[in-house]
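Below is one protein, fold included:
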Amino acid sequence: MRRINAILRRIHLENFFLVNMTKTMVTFSLVTFGWILFRAETMDDSIFIMANLFSDFYRWGEFPYVYRILTDMGLGPAELLASIACIIILLIADIHAGTSNIHEELMYERADIRFVFYTLIGFLIIALGVFHGGTDFIYFQF
């Protein structure tokens, strides 16, 4: 990795968007494959999962197929739309966080704008949080 970084630095591409995106995707892929190995009951199960991971890859461009897969996992239309909206909000927040600091920006805003922002955040936590059912910490379920 040091050799790759040195080459990128030499040709002035170390902070290029596509290079950073590629590094992120490679890291995500390696961690995902690590989780497959970590979570599988047996090594045969992990090999089966990895062998069939991309078996229907060409069908992910078909909306009815993707919708059926997601609803078969227990997501209803409302949860699916809420998930997509939350992912878009997270992407926007991540892009915005790379260019500025939201805490510093809010510090200089008027009190009523800060109040609306923090009230909205609190409302989203209450509305989207899971407060019923088991009391186990989420990582104890794995």
Summary: Helices lie at 2-10, 17-39, 43-52, 63-72, 77-99, 102-107, 111-128. The mean pLDDT is 80. The first helix runs from residue 2 to 10.
